[in-house]
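# step 3/5: fold
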Amino acid sequence: MRIPIDTHLLDNGLRVTLSEDHRAPIVAVNLWYHVGSANERTGRTGFAHLFEHMLFQGSEHVGANEHFELVQRAGGMLNGSTWLDRTNYFETLPSHHLELALWLEAERMGRLLPAMTQEKLDTQRGVVMNERRWSVDNQPYGTWWERLPALAFPPEHPFHHSLIGSFADLEAASLDDISEFFRTYYTPDNAVLTIAGDFDPAQALALVRRHFGPIPRGRGTPPLPDMSLPPRLGGWLRSTVEDEVMVPRVYLAFRVPVFGSAASYVAGICGAILGMRRGSLMHRALVREGQVASAVGASTWDLAKGADLLVLDATARPGVDAGRLEQAMVTAVERLRQDGVPDAEVARAVALIETDFVTTMQSASDRADKLSLFATYLGDPHRLNEEVERYRAVTAAGVAAFAREQMGEDNRATLTFVPRAAAAEAA
């Protein structure tokens, strides 16, 4: 399938991607800012995630939480998310309310600071801290997504520190500090706006120009520190966490080439072969036959600078210790490295990825998000239409070579969660 894609550039630098689809009277608006935790300086961590909250607290002409109220009253849904190298905000709503979503996004891009107050900062700072306690610290295995990059990226690398940031940095942040962060990064020339779904392209572009066009371009974003990394970790890194969990879980990560590179598609196929669905190597070996795991998985992190991560995970069955679980995972990886896989395994992985792609493209919201991803990371949303062919081009020989080069003992990071009681007994 080919996705219709039309691109435009406003005078203020805002990149606009339009993807028309009239199968349902729904439209999705998706705005990516090219800023995440990687852009934060030492002593100023947590700002990107804090702004995910602050941008819903009202602007010059929109009251606190009114953004939610207006979209939900129109029958829509909305949210935002923060990652290592981007922040996004999105609305999906009946297509005749497109202008509402565009006005709201332009309003907070261009007129947030007049409504930003110390009271709002103090409130959202507390919300972020409570969110961390609830969704990270008090969730089983909840710290894995910040412990793993801290293990896999060196301390000086922008991907190393926690996305949520430290409580000390958040407590020390002043209104002037976060206002300056907003002025620097939340500008039209550091953003990608995507509209997907049921709309008229000419009318939609006119609305975008009306609401976003008057917003001035930013002053430019400061360059990131050196993001380059060696192709491999240089050893087998390990970290064990005693946690309030019932059974062990093991994450096994590999440093792989960045998102969008030719090798990244081979990494994706390797992940699918090892951990995607019930037919994967790890599911057959660890869940069905060996019965050491209750669940397995695999994913890449879609990081476009420095290096990406391919991450395998497995959760132990009751009574199985972490060492036995890890060994079973390593055995599956070594089988791939030493024996390779038949063409049929690669074809299965490609078919699964293609099915997921087609399913994702049926959703206006998911399509808009993918287009924003390619426009932000690669500068070309049209690359979305090449995805399936790039995966189809991966061969069994390419998978075997990649596994040998990138998944050996000189390029592994193992993060292991164990129950506190088991850790105490082992000691």
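# step 4/5: annotate
The two ends are 56 Å apart (CA to CA).
# step 5/5: archive (pending)
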